[in-house]
Each structure stands twice: as C-alpha cells, then as structure tokens.
Amino acid sequence: MGEETKKAIKYALKLLNISEISELKIKQFLEKQGYDESEIKETIKYLKTRNFVNDARLADLIVEKCIRKKKGINYIRDILASKGIPENIISETLARMYPDRLEYMVARELFLSSKKPLKKTLYWLASRGFSETTLEKLREEAGEQ
Fold it and tell me: pLDDT tens for residues 32-71?
C-alpha cells in the first residue's frame, strides 16, 4: 500500500469519524482532494473490508430516523439518493423497512391528528413526502373524491 493511499484512508476515516457517509460520497471527497482512481479504489476496499463504510447500514439508519420523524416514502427516497445510496439499496431498504401499509398507518395517524381542513392536511402530508397512493386512500377514507 502506497503512501498516498495511506493518506487517503486517513482522510476517509476522518470523514467517517464526523458522520457515516456513503461509498459514493467518500469517492467524491477523495476525488476533490486529488487522489487518483487506484488510490480511491484501494481506500474504498480497505473501508469496506473493515465495515467502516456500508451503504445498506447507512440506508437503514436514515430510514429509521425518517420513520421516527413521520416522513413519507418519497421524502425518504430523495434523502437516500442525495446521500449517494445506490438505487438498488434504496428500493430494497424501503421495501423491507417501510412498506406501503406502514406508510399509510403513519400518514393516517398524522391525518387524524390534524386540525386543518382536508385539502390543507393532504397538501401538508404531500409536502412530507407521502406517496400519492397513500394520499388517495386517505382522501377516499375522508369521503372525498
């Protein structure tokens, strides 16, 4: 392992000490620092073999946090994508951790606790990233087409 690769690993570990970040984001940070492709590959390999970087684990953490904050699936999908999580991991994680039924239950809880008129409540839920399917079910449940 070359000296530059060791520096790249040290830099990546410093980043990971601040916050868990995706493999893609680490690559981007290393590219900005001027490391070449082989150094970046070696660094990512080192981090992955020691489980310092794990996009699936990061996705799980983000989804858990967003569910606690009562966010919708579209919001969560956007957050995961912005963090550099690959689409296949996003889809798998959401299917496993936030199925349609759970999203509906979270949205319904917010819907029932809202004191706003129906249209404003549905708009508010849409702004929190709830899916059109969930919003449609709530609209039907409230008796409005």
Answer: 999 999 999 999 999 999 999 999 999 999 999 999 999 9
Contact partners, residue 22, CB within 8 Å, separation at least 6: 53, 55, 58, 83, 84, 85
How many angstroms separate the CA atoms of 106 and 140, rounded? 16
Q: Which residues contact 52 (CB under 8 A, 6 or more apart)?
A: 12, 13, 16
Say if residues 129 and 63 touch (Cβ distance below 8 Å).
Answer: no
Contacts (Cβ under 8 Å, ≥6 apart) of 78: 129
Read off the pLDDT of residues 13-28 as tens digits, 9 standing for 90 and up.
999 999 999 999 999 9
